[in-house]
Amino acid sequence: MDDNPERERLSVTALLRRRVDGLILTTATSSQGYLLPEQSHGTPLVFVDRAPVGIEADAVVSDNAIGAATATRHLLEHGHRRIAYVGDSHGLQTARERRRGFQEEIGKAGIPTGEIAQMEDLHSEEAAFDAVCRLMIGDNPPTAIFSSQNLVTVGAIRALRHFGLQHRIALVGFDDVELSDLLEPAITVVAQDPRRIGELAAERMFARLDGDKTAPITYVVPTTLIVRGSGEIRPS
Fold first, then answer.
1. Is 118 exposed, middle or buried (CB count within 10 Å of its CB: 0-12, 13-18, 19+)?
2. Euclidean distance between CA atoms 61 and 22, whole angstroms
3. How far apart are CA 52 and CA 40, in angstroms?
4. Alpha-carbon span 45 to 21, nearest angstrom
5. In sequence order, which residues have a C-beta less than 8 Å from that of residue 198 and are 6 or more positions away?
6. Band of the pLDDT at 5, cuts 50, 70, 90?
7. CA of 158: how far to CAs of 13, 68, 127, in Å?
8. Burial level of 19, CB count in 10 A (0-12/13-18/19+)?
9. C-beta of residue 50 within 8 angstroms of C-beta of residue 94
10. DSSP code, position 176
């Protein structure tokens, strides 16, 4: 599902009308308590990407905060202290966790978070492009950027190339971006493991359908830093 809460409810309602045996969901609503009646009727639920709120159920998520911290530490280790954060909607659990990982790693480095540019609620590639352009023409532009979502990363790539800064400003993105390994420099990313996430979600669903009544389980799937070049640029 996309990140539209109303569309989410409509899609779930449509699926339930078809008497599905179970639901594997990626949700956008702030609370999934509206599914409690279905759960009480015996419909198994497995949440993917974001842990459920307002209901207890199995979930499979990435280590968002740890992955963001890893990306930030990578930039710090390459000499950056002016690292900008550009992120997705703060209303999304994944975005909040990635920002938390970023901020905690910045704090560990002794850098006041109030001195760091942090731009959120960038819902599209175009919004991210505009945000990064504003950063680049500001009084104290960053020497590195951590982008917390793939569309945001694409917007950041476009903005850096617009100013001819792709070889001077370091960039690490969360989520891999299609063809990012073919760019120059290729884009360093924190990659999720969608295959493992899907496998675990399917395993939990089949277990529940087979009668597993154990307490809900939350699996946290590790992310991987893929070093390609853009995140290894040192400040000039």
1. middle
2. 19
3. 16
4. 10
5. 48
6. low
7. 39, 21, 11
8. exposed
9. yes
10. -
The rounded percent of the chain whose pLDDT value lies above 90 is: 79
Strands ordered across the beta sheet of 170-174: 118-119, 83-86, 144-147, 170-174, 188-191, 224-226
Q: Cβ atoms within 10 A of the Cβ of 184, count?
A: 8
Q: Is 178 exposed, middle or buried (0-12, 13-18, 19+ CB in 10 A)?
A: exposed
Instruction: Write out pLDDT tens, residues 113-122.
Output: 888 999 999 9
Token pair 């599905």 is found at 20
Q: What does pTM read for this prediction?
A: 0.89
* Residue reference for tokens 């100013």: 163
pLDDT tens sequence across 127-142 = 999 999 999 999 899 9
Distances from the Cα of 55 to the Cαs of 2, 15, 34, 35, in angstroms?
Answer: 20, 19, 9, 8
Q: With 0-12 CB in 10 A as exposed, 13-18 as middle and 19+ as buried, what is 94?
A: buried
Query: Facing residues of 24 across strands?
Result: 46
